[in-house]
Structures are given as C-alpha cells and as structure tokens.
Amino acid sequence: MIISLNSTASSEERADVMAHLCRLTGNQKPVSTVQIDGQEVIAIDQQSIDEYNATLLKDHPAVATLTNVKTPYQLVSRVFKSTRSSIVVGEAHNCDPVVIGGEHAAPVIMAGPCAVESREQLLSTACAVKEAGAQILRGGAFKPRTSPYQFQGLGIEGLQLLAEARAATGLPIITEVMEPAMVDVVAQYADILQIGSRNMQNFPLLLAAGRHAQKRPVLLKRGFSSTIDEWLLAAEYIVAAGNPNVILCERGIRSYDPQTRNVFDLSCVPLLHELTHLPVIVDPSHATGRRELVPPMSRAGIAAGAEGLIIETHLDPNSALCDGRQSITPEQLQSIVRTTRQLARLLNEEMALTPVA
Ligand code: PEP
Ligand code: MN
C-alpha cells in the first residue's frame, strides 16, 4: 500500500499519520517518506492494513491518496507510477546534464575501461570515448574480483583520477561502490553509483545507497542468478530508503554454456518496461564476455528498448588489467554510437506511426 501525503497537512496531522502507520506495521522499523516526482509518499506492507484502517487512512487529513499495489515491489512499480521515470545525471559536478530514460529519450552511452589502471590510461581513454560520442565515463576504482590475487583497483586514487578525467572532458562519471561505509566517499566523486551484480542483494549497501545525503543516481546491475522480482525488490530497497534515482542494468545471467560469459536476457527489457517506471540500460560487455559480440548485442539491446548502454572500452584491450577479452576500442565504440543512435531514431519514428493495438 502506498500512502501519498497531502502537501498542505500540518505537522501535527503528519505526525499523527506516521504514528498510526508505525502502530500498523508493528513498529518494526521507522516509517520513512520518499519524494517521488515531487510527491511525498510512504510504502508499507499491504498485509498490515485491513479495510477498517484503510478507510481511516483514506479519510485522514494528512493523506492525499492510497494506492493498492499487489506486487511485492511497490514504489518502483508501474501500477504506482504509470509514466516512465527519467533521471538527470551530472549536475552535481557542473557537467552538462545527461538525461537517462523517460518517454522517447535518446539512448545514453556510457563507456570506459573496466578498471581505472593509471592516470595516463584513464585520461587518454576518457578523451577517446568522448570523441567517439559517449556521454558518461565508466571506470572501476574498487573492483569486485573473483580471485584475491587479481588487480583490485586503485581505490581512492582511482576516484581522484576519475574526477580529473571528468574535469578534463566534462563527462559525468559512473563508478562502483562495494561497501556501505564507502557510499558517502564514492558519492563525493561519482555522478552515478554503480552497485555490481555480486552486490545486488547486499541489503546494507542498498540501504546506504538509498539513505546517503547526496542522493546520487544508482545503477543497479542484475545479480547473475537473480530473478526479475528479486532485482525489482533490490531496487525497492534503495527507493524506499529515500533515493528514487535508480537505473536498472541487465548484464547477463549465468547459465551452463561457457561459450559466452553469461546469457544476455534481452527479453527482460520490454518486460521491465511493463513492470516498472525505472529506466533500463544494458551491458553487452559483461553479458557476452566477447568483444566481437558487443556491436551486434548493443544493437539488439537498443532494439529491445533499452534506454542506454554501458560498454567497456580500452585503448589496448589485450593489455587491460581487467576484462580485456570483452573490451572494445574507441573506434569500435564510435561505430556502435553511430549505429545505435540511428537505430533508436528509426524505432522511435516507426513506433510513433504504429497505432496502439
Ligand atoms: C563491471 O562493471 O566492471 C562489473 C564488475 O560488472 P558486474 O557487476 O556486472 O559484473
Ligand atoms: Mn568489468
């Protein structure tokens, strides 16, 4: 159940409704409000409200509307918000704003190395991906590596280099945060916080990304063995904790065939657009693990309706410290940018001409 609060309610009326909701939910946790599209809302478990209390709430002067959402995720559901959300990135660090998602938005291309390796590598790659047409620079400073003996990232130094690359190119930056205690620090540098596949159900991390003061947009990658409902519930954690700026990223799920690193579940893109108002982007690099598959699967992602791509790009992929096999060159990126933009334009025009069934 989602309770939208009346903006004209007095503080006593608000306190009264909050106390009532705390009683209904058994005071398990403090009830918190979230601003979604300028509207203050609270979501609580449907089970905790019977018909009598629903009527009491509906008539309460602090309550504007009650919305009954039947799925376990609520605030991210399209039942609650029918229009697609768009998220503005980059304003916090005085970059030209980039809009991700929303109706008929052009796809946003994020590109850069898997990991920040050195100043020289990052700055030259940042200039090259900008030249190729990317709008956001990616680069991991904290890397979740399968083996403890692999390169783990440059840490804070990597974040400082990303900030330098942003200053040099004007591109907003996206970088991964792996632990709750680091959210505030990474958010000082990043324009988008990336929560990786391995951490999709790290609930303390999701809560920290929801609660942190700067409310940076969060790119939530799909856990490689997660169902769509689990993924949407992970997004719900962030939104319910106070940060509505969540972008979903399909990056492939694990299956039995080692030919590709993962299986790219592109059917999730149109399905998510039915289920949620959050923007959806795709990552053809981690989804396939093979650079030759990145251009065709980038096109496929856009054709499926993704609102953006995140692509690993390296000046010398074969010498990359991380994920070189799936990294492409800036020249290949430029061709992907050109083709996918044309494709998106064509699809938008075609869809505008197609009568709704
Ligand atoms: C990455 O973006 O480099 C990464 C580690 O991604 P994922 O969490 O999808 O594996
Ligand atoms: Mn990677």
Quick recap of the structure?
The chain has 2 domains: 2-67; 86-353, Aldolase class I (TIM Barrel, Alpha-Beta Barrel), CATH 3.20.20.70.
Topology:
Blueprint: E1 2-5, H1 11-24, E2 34-36, E3 39-43, H2 51-58, E4 63-67, E5 86-89, E6 98-101, E7 108-112, H3 119-131, E8 136-138, H4 156-169, E9 173-176, H5 183-189, E10 192-195, H6 203-211, E11 218-221, H7 228-240, E12 246-250, H8 268-275, E13 280-282, H9 284-288, H10 294-303, E14 308-312, H11 330-353
Parallel strand pairs: 7-8, 7-14, 8-9, 9-10, 10-11, 11-12, 12-13
Antiparallel strand pairs: 1-3, 1-4, 2-3, 5-6
Helix pairs in contact: 3-4, 6-7, 10-11
Bound molecules: phosphoenolpyruvate and manganese (II) ion.
Manganese (II) ion binds at residues 114, 286, 312, 322-323.
Describe the structure.
- This protein has eleven helices and 14 strands.
- The two termini are 31 Å apart.
- The structure holds phosphoenolpyruvate and manganese (II) ion.
- Manganese (II) ion (MN) binds next to loops.
Helix % is 25-40%
- Rg from C-alpha positions? 21 Å
Q: Which hetero ligands occur in this complex?
A: phosphoenolpyruvate, manganese (II) ion
Strand arrangement, major sheet: 13-12-11-10-9-8-7-14
For this structure, the CATH topology of the largest domain is TIM Barrel
The largest pleated sheet is described as: 8 strands, parallel
Question: What features would you highlight for this structure?
Answer:
about 350 residues; alpha/beta; TIM Barrel; 4-stranded antiparallel sheet; about 35% helix; about 15% strand; globular; binds phosphoenolpyruvate; binds manganese (II) ion
